[in-house]
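In response to reviewer comment 3 from the previous cycle, which asked for concrete evidence that the modeling workflow produces usable outputs, we include below a single protein chain processed end to end. The sequence was submitted unchanged, and the resulting C-alpha cells are shown without manual editing.
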Amino acid sequence: MLQFCQNKQKVVLVDKESFLIDQLHSDLIGDDGAVIGEMVYSMDAFHEDVHFKRAWMRPAQIARKAMLINLSDAVAMNADPLYALVTVSLPRDFSQKEIAELTRSLEETAASYGCSIIGGDTVGGEKLHLSITIISRSDNPLLRSGLQEGDLLAFTGYLGESKRDLDRLLKGEKIPEDSRFYEPILRREFVAKARSYLRSGMDISDGLYCDSNKILDYNHLGFEPLVEIDETIGMSGEEYEMLVGVAPEQLERVKEIAVELNLPLTPFAKVVKNSRRYHCRSHHFD
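The workflow returned the following C-alpha cells.
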C-alpha cells in the first residue's frame, strides 16, 4: 500500500486497520502469512479505486499485479506457492473478452511461480475487486519475529518508483509499461539464498517507514538511524522489495549474496531498546 507519512519519532494514533487486527486473538496473526506446520496461508485484496483505476491498467495488468502482490507474501516468507483461491467482483460493463484476459493473466502469473488456481468465487458488483488466498509451503519460513538488539535493518533494491509513478498517474500522465507500479519485482532468489543468514524479514508493501514500524512493534524494539531516509523513499508503498533484519556478523555474507544477484542492499538502521518510530499515517482509511 502507498503511504503518506512523515519522518518523525512517534506514531500518535492507532489507525483503523491496526485497531481491527488488535480485536482478533489468534496467535497465528502477525506475519505476512499464517504458518501452520509446513503450510503458509496468506491473502490480499486488490480493489478498483483503492489500489488502481481501470483507466490506468489493462485487465491483464490488473490481474498480474493482483497475483504478484499476493505471491509476494509467500516469497517474503521463504515459502513456495502451491495453490491460489481467487474471488472476483465483476462490474456489469466488464466484457467476456476482458474476463478472458483477466483470468488468463491470473493463471499465467501464478503458474510462473509454480502455483495453480484451484477455485474461488465470482460475484457481481459496482467495481472490479480481486481477493486472492495463497497456500504455500516452507520448511524454514522467514518471520517478522526474531529481531534482536544490535541487529541491522536493511532493504533490497531501490525504493521510490512506485509512489512517483502513482503520482504521475493521478496527474493524468503516462508511466512506462515496466514501471514498478505495474510490475512489482519479487526477490525470491535473494530470500532463498539468504534465509540462513537473516534474523527476520517481510516485504515492503506499506512503505519503508510503516513496515519498519511493524517489524519493530512485533519485536518490542526500536531503532537508531544509520542513514537518513528521504520521504520519497520511506513513503513509497507497493514496492515489494524486502525489509530484513540481519545480525552484524552475518551482514557481509548477506551483502555477498546481494552482489551475486546484482541486487542493491542498504542497511539503514540499528535495532536498539527504545520506542523510536517513523511517523506514518495509514491511508487505508480516512
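The first helix runs from residue 16 to 22. We consider this sufficient to address the reviewer's concern, and the full set will be provided in the supplementary archive.
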